[in-house]
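User: Sequence in, structure out. Go.
Assistant: Echoing your sequence, followed by the structure tokens.
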Amino acid sequence: MSSFNRVIVMGNLTRDPELKQLDSGQSVCRLGLAINRQYKNNQGAMVQEVCYVDVDLWGAQAESSNKYLQKGRLVLVEGRLKLDTWETDGQKRSKHSIAGEKITFMPVAGSQNSENSVDKENSFGGNDFGTASLDQAKPARVAAKSAPRAPRAKVTSIDIDAIGEIELPEEAPFEDDLPF
């Protein structure tokens, strides 16, 4: 029987990153993450629930996380769940943690200066959020859906030697049926 172990979480750092160099020269960085959940209980009152988890990152991601992150910063982490076990004073201990495989530094809310901006150099998820706040970070396809569509030009054949330069009409990206 096959198994599947994939974790995707987004939360705030509970402390500054802790970077260590192993004897092999490999870098490892441990992050403490707080993941919040808000829900209504049976009495109708809003309840806050917090899940704390440690994340281990390796190599270049560990070094960049140590360089650019600090306590309170919002991050998105993809990885796998692992069980750490050890023995202290004759008692066996264990704890679940996340072996991070990919980390995305989320934008700093309300930041307009380049010091706190997120760029491709320190965003391992491949997303360039720039200095936009979380409210402003909206997928481009949503904005394109609301834009009016330009009429499509029909082209049957083109004599390239006679034309020289071709001017193509600007079109909005194709519309899909995804709800977001």
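User: And one key feature?
Assistant: The CA atoms of residues 92 and 164 lie 77 Å apart.
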